Amino acid sequence: MEFAELIKTPRVDGVVLHRPFMPTVEGTLCLTGHHLILSSRQDNTEELWLLHANIDSIEKRFVGSLGTIIVKCKDLRVIQLDIPGMEECLNIANSIEALSTLDSVSLMYPFFYRPLFEVIEDGWQLFVAEESFKDLESMTDEWRLSEVNKDFRVCPSYPSFLTVPKDIDDESLCKAASFRHGGRFPVLSYYHKKNGMVMMRAAQPLIGTNGRRCKEDEKLINATLCAGKRGYIIDTRTIAVAQQAKARGGGFEQEANYPQWRRIHKAIERSNVLQDSLIKLVEACNDQSHSMDRWLSKLEASNWQSNVKEILTTACLAAQCIDREGASVLVHGTEGTDSTLQVTSLAQIILDPTCRTIRGFEALIEREWLQAGHPFQQRCAQSAYSNGKPRSEAPVFLLFLDCVWQILRQFPCSFQFNENLLIMLFEHAYASQFGTFLGNCVAERVKLQLSQKTVSLWSWVNRPQELQRFLNPLYEPNNLVIWPSVAPQSLLLWEGVFLRWNRSTKCLDEACQEMVHIIEYNKELQNKVNSLRRQLAQLETEDGPLQTP
Amino acid sequence: MEHIRTPKVEQVKLLDRFSNKSVTGTLHLTATHLIFVESNSTSAQEIWILHHHIASVEKLSLTTSGCPLLIQCRNFRLVHFVIPRERDCHDIYSSLLRLLRPVSYDELYAFSYNPKQNDQQREEGWQLIDLAAEFERMGVPCDQWQLTDVNREYKVCKTYPRDLYVPITASKPIIVGSSKFRSKGRFPVLTYFYQEKKAAVCRCSQPLSGFSARCLEDEHMLQAISKANHNSRYIYVMDTRPKLNALANRAAGKGYENEDNYSNIRFQFVGIENIHVMRGSLQKLLEVVGTRSLSMTDYLVGLENSGWLRHIKAIMDAAIFLAKAVTVEGASVLVHCSDGWDRTAQVCALGSLLMDPYYRTIKGFMVLIEKDWISFGHKFADRCDQLNIDPKEVSPIFTQFLECVWQLTEQFPQAFEFSEWFLIQIHEHVHSCQFGNFLGNSQRQREDLQLKERTYSLWAHLLNEKQNYLNPVYSPSFAESHPVLEPSTQAYHFKFWRNMYHQYDRSMHPRQSILKHVLTLKDSNRELEGTVQALKTKLQKFGVRTSPLKPQTPPRERSIAPRPQSLILGAPLLSRKEVQQEEDEEVFGEEAREDAPASTGGERTVEGSSATENGYGEVMGSFGSKNEPGVVTLEFGVARMSC
């Protein structure tokens, strides 16, 4: 298909662009296959380059022959375009609608994007399962890297290589897989070096109404326990929801069959509920009424902060079991691709200082989200402004980022990266020139040949020029477990995302600059003192102080 | 001392408010403080509670472990002791009941507090703030405004200060006539003068207009205020009350200005609620945030139902209205409420702070409080319950003002010379009765009490510790680019002030404080500059030429006040050492303790970050009744990690 077929009017002159907290720009609007561009042809005005994929929905309005298109983006920005001429406006609107809802992945921009920078370090090769397994091997010999899923037959949403207990053979893995939703049998998610405890993740067991059991599954997870030790199964669903799942063939581990495990139920919402929560939250943030009661009640009704609290609490609980209780943990919900990943990845940020570095965080997202089969393409197809009936869209990843931000707020000196990295990841998960978040699982990405045909986000982020933007000036590495507060008074609204386009951040940015200046000046002074001391020491050993006349 | 029956109780348990944690220690009761000293611990936590800070003491019914005593403080601390023997508990309880109800001003801490200063230092402390100099700074007296001696003897208005500024055209008969037409005689006087536009902010109380009464002198007074400003043909009269309240007052012979009787006024209600509503609102707020295992829904619904942030926003909206009228329209504004000492003080002070960068400095903020709150007779004694006279008079009016300022610091981080620690510390001392500044209800009463001779000034104390209260990112040039602050009043900009209302609840706070971190860096920068300078001098002796150092500040001698168990991670508390020196001998006798050792022995945590304090979930009691060692470790307080 040619994009040109969808573009009836490729350019219009005299279009006026309105953006919050920015001066209006008048210029020429151009539509290309992947971008909406507004250029004023003047030197000092910023141009607008908007990816069609970033457009969540549009609204049209007409006053006489002047048309207005309100463009609502997935990054939550809302802009307004005044277009002279009714026909032009209609054509532009139709094109935007068609181009922003292309069905075929291979028509997406990442397949057309050619980087203007030289790829020094290929992000596609950065996080290889064999490499991280080597790290594990240096700490313990209890685990092995299985290739049972090499051609994605045992579990379509898992990667080819999986870390499993050494004593469990591939045959048992296949049997355990048949007992778990989507074939997602229990695999290693995290090894806690300090005490050798582990966190595993899986999907729900398929016990159904008959109470099916699977010896291999039981053996598999028991193999992760030391002699005489017990473990915890954290089911991210309430007991009621888990019970209901039995009727559809799912369910939870029965005590009788897993005597060494204690099950804890939490109440993380399912994805369709989360999408509704996001829509309501963004609606509340965009309410211009200035009424305090209205704001608070809308914020409450959105339930967003409750979701943040519940997810964070569950992650803390998992971390607590591992670090404080000295017990191993298995985490699952229903499919094991959403709430499960939120919990396992957040628990690692709490427990493992490596995950608080930029590389470590990238590796975490690669391992616990991309490789682990979070269906990014489905979940991020639409954002808060979607009009249509939601299919499988849900801000699962955004909630994870929000929780990371909450921890970052409470431990501002413990992270190598800053809020900008989190916001950038949110943007790119929804619309990007890079291929990293395309597809729903490793199998799909292999089929799409993403690593050959697109550029990895990490290739770009890790360039020193870009990295600068994401560094936290306050960072002072520490090797400690960080326990965040989950009291509602301690959890804040993530303004950097939800109020990003509704407030002017000039004053806050300048204050931040000043802080950076203080920190840098401190480093400078320390260097100066050191060099002067060296100089002095040298002089003192060479020859005693000169006689002053 | 005669009220203290049991000065010391051992084996007392202190329960944490939000978790199941508890520590054991010894409780000491002194003439001024209730002190809890943790035993058997390397950290040896100490809690000092000034009797004046205690709002209420409650003895709960006896339990198996002892007798619980619940103490609620005005600085939002809440402590829950369990005392093993009922008798001891009762003794402490009844002593406290007596101690926290002083019958006369003489019993207040300020009259016994002695920071080891001589009379001259004390006097100098009181001279730090000079309101005459402040009016001069504003440009008053001038060709339109003059100082009047009409209230020199407090004859016209008992609750106003002696020195008052009025338009030159307002003669004494007019002033006296106007004062008779205003509640409590509080006639319109100048509180802030915006030199750039010659516009004035004046304050007064409500007129005694009833349904139809009028007063020519009062009308003339407003006319005089209007005429003193050539930039505008009209003045605004802001009634800070909700219209309904003002209407109701008419039946009592009070009310508001009738626009028909006053020429060229623009009358405006702004709808700030009264002291009773505010008291109830704070109570509701504290109840909500004091709930254990509070859910997000209950928190947000509770926050909304308390109305607290709505009230804060209403005050801010009024102040913004005032600042706009003055700075943009160049109009003079007359502000009043009922008596003109609560809402009026809030709006005038906050409005001036928006208009004048001086009030955003440490010294300027003190001046502002001295002017609009202390001298104009905000009834601190009644509102802060200094003598336990009438619970219906108590209200967090001043706390709201401090909170409004904090909300502004959140929007304009570089505009203020001080940090929130300064605001919190002021709040602490408004209730502590340790310094004389806030005692009593009016200037006249303060003079009668001879506060300047018998007590010390808080301002001197705070200026001494100035280092602790600086905002590290403050930029004086911000004042030049933003002389007038224009805050956004979108509801989402108003936040719950956790560091105030949870200042003693450690588990609620971020575990690493950016403020503390950057302050430390700034201190370190100053020291390093000194070191660089010293090294260069040494090098010069070797004949080495060095480039001059860039920004220079002479190495200052700094005395950082002791920072005991931080309120909010290192925020300074009242100087405990001083207090301790005074009382050590009589209370502790031979048991005099040393200060807590800095190290907590081998274990490291990130600023007290702990899994148990946060209560993530039901791990405890996991495997039924079996005593799993893994479960027991959870009882320990702090997440331990050796590395």
Automatic annotation (TrEMBL), chain A:
PROSITE patterns named in the record: PPASE_MYOTUBULARIN
Membrane topology of the entry: Peripheral membrane protein
Segments forming domain Myotubularin phosphatase: 123-498
GO biological process terms held by the UniProt record: negative regulation of autophagy; phosphatidylinositol dephosphorylation
InterPro entries reported in the protein's UniProt record: Myotubularin, Myotubularin-like_Pase_dom, PH-GRAM_MTMR6-9, PH-like_dom_sf, Prot-tyrosine_phosphatase-like
GO molecular function, one term: protein phosphatase binding
GO cellular component, one term: perinuclear region of cytoplasm
UniProt KW keywords: Acetylation, Cell membrane, Cell projection, Coiled coil, Cytoplasm, Endoplasmic reticulum, Membrane
Localization annotation: Cell projection, Ruffle membrane; Cytoplasm, Perinuclear region; Endoplasmic reticulum
Superkingdom per UniProt: Eukaryota
Presence of the UniProt keyword Endoplasmic reticulum in the record: yes
PANTHER family: MYOTUBULARIN-RELATED, MYOTUBULARIN-RELATED PROTEIN 9
Family that this chain belongs to: Belongs to the protein-tyrosine phosphatase family. Non-receptor class myotubularin subfamily.
Protein name: Myotubularin-related protein 9
Organism: Carassius auratus
Lineage: Eukaryota, Metazoa, Chordata, Craniata, Vertebrata
Automatic annotation (TrEMBL), chain B:
Keyword Lipid metabolism: yes
GO BP, one annotated term: phosphatidylinositol dephosphorylation
Gene Ontology MF annotations: phosphatidylinositol-3,5-bisphosphate phosphatase activity; phosphatidylinositol-3-phosphate phosphatase activity
Pfam families hit by this protein: Myotub-related (PF06602), PH-GRAM_MTMR6-like (PF21098)
GO cellular component, one term: cytoplasm
Record SMART domains: PTPc_motif
Active site: C337 (phosphocysteine intermediate)
Family assignment from sequence similarity: Belongs to the protein-tyrosine phosphatase family. Non-receptor class myotubularin subfamily.
The name this protein goes by in its record: Myotubularin-related protein 6-like
Species name: Carassius auratus (Goldfish)
Gene: LOC113073264
